[in-house]
Amino acid sequence: MPVELELLANFDELPPFDENAPTFVENAAGKALHYSRIQEGFVFADDSGLVVPALGGAPGVHSARYAGPGAANSQRIEKLLAEMRDKSGRERAAYFVCAIALAKRGRAIAVVTDRVDGEILDAPRGAGGFGYDPVFYFPALKKTFAELSAKEKNQHSHRGKAFRRLLAALSSML
């Protein structure tokens, strides 16, 4: 089933949604519901981030703000690596999670999630990707997410997997 995606028209002029919920699902659903009340058609929104159980789930829903507002990816990675310095073995386990919510006219239609498991390296590797990709090692391919090709990342990433779940949910509704 072909799906055509468009950015919300004049997004910068729309009333913003404050992402302050404690879970990825609540943030994704909140955004989708919020924007679906002011835009026609289906609206989907996601929330995603890195979870490190040995850090109590941090960075978690604060992944983008982990090193403070406006911090660069390199600063977030630096903070993460500093907090992981004394961790070894299973303590370095981590996963990326993505939640996607679909809404229409202020009503939730579907919410899907998925994740990809890996571990945090001691130092960044690779030049691709963004965010925590250079320190997120994916054992199945023996590479960091920053070393994956676009095709590999789309196939294995939390976002790719969650988006395929959303498409499956949509096709079962139509």
Name its key features.
single chain, 174 residues, alpha+beta, Maf protein, 4 helices, globular
Please, what is the oligomeric state? Answer: single chain
Instruction: Give the overall form.
Output: globular
Number of strands: 5
CATH class: Alpha Beta
Number of helices: 4
Describe this structure in words.
- This protein is α+β, with helices and mostly antiparallel strands and 174 residues long.
- It has one domain (21-173): Maf protein (Alpha-Beta Complex).
- 28% of the residues lie in helices and 24% in strands.
- A 5-stranded antiparallel beta sheet has the order 1-2-3-4-5.
- Helix 3 (150-156) crosses helix 4.
Please outline what is shown here.
This protein has helices at residues 24-36, 73-84, 150-156, 158-173, and strands at 42-51, 93-104, 107-120, 136-138, 143-144. It contains four helices and five strands, in the order H-E-H-E-E-E-E-H-H.
Topology:
Elements (H helix, E strand, L loop, with lengths): L23 H13 L5 E10 L21 H12 L8 E12 L2 E14 L15 E3 L4 E2 L5 H7 L1 H16 L1
Antiparallel strand pairs: 1-2, 2-3, 3-4, 4-5
Helix pairs in contact: 3-4
